[in-house]
Amino acid sequence: MNKEEQIQIWQTQRLNFDICRRRRQVLQGGIKMTDRYSGFIVVLEKDLRQDDAEDTIKAIKQIKGVLRVAPQISDYALLAAYSRARQELIERLWKVLEESK
Predict the structure, then answer these.
(1) How far is the C-alpha of 101 from the C-alpha of 99, rounded, in Å?
(2) Residues 35, 8: Cα–Cα separation, whole Å
(3) Predicted confidence band at 15 (pLDDT cuts at 50, 70, 90)?
(4) What pLDDT is attached to residue 92?
(5) Domain boundaries, the chain
(6) How far apart are CA 43 and CA 37, in angstroms?
(7) Quick one: how far is CA 3 from the chain centroid?
C-alpha cells in the first residue's frame, strides 16, 4: 500500500469518525439541527400590472440560489377572499371597541 492510499484511508476513517461523533451529539441533544428551506412565498403589498412587475421578477431572480420565479395571477376569487377577511377583521375590531365603552 503506497502513501497516497494510506492518506486516503486515514481521511475516510477521520470523516466517518466525525460523522458518528456529530450524530451522537445530535441524539444527545448537544447540537440542534437547523431546518432547511426549499423556498419562500412572497406576498406583494398590492397587485402589480404584468409590465410593472418585470423589474421585481428580475430582481428576485438575481438573488443567490433562486431557481425559478413564478408570478401568481390575481383573480376575483382571491380578491373576494381578501375582501371578506378584511371585512371580518373590521367587524371584530368594532365589536371590541363597542364592548370597551
Answers:
(1) 6
(2) 32
(3) confident
(4) 93
(5) 1-33
(6) 17
(7) 46
> Which tens digit of pLDDT belongs to each residue from 68-91?
998 888 787 887 888 899 899 999
Model confidence at 31: pLDDT above 90: no
Distance, in Å, from the CA atom of 71 to the CA atom of 78, rounded to the nearest integer, reads: 14
State how far the Cα of 40 lies from the Cα of 63, in Å rounded to an integer. Answer: 12
Confirm whether pTM is higher than 0.70.
no
Cell of 15: 470523516
What is the average pLDDT across 11-24? 80
CA–CA gap between residue 22 and residue 72 (Å, rounded): 42
Question: DSSP for 25-63?
Answer: HHHTTSSPPPP---------SS---HHHHHHHHHHHHTS
End-to-end Cα distance, the chain: 89
Q: 65's torsion region: left (phi>0), alpha (psi -120 to 50) or beta?
A: left
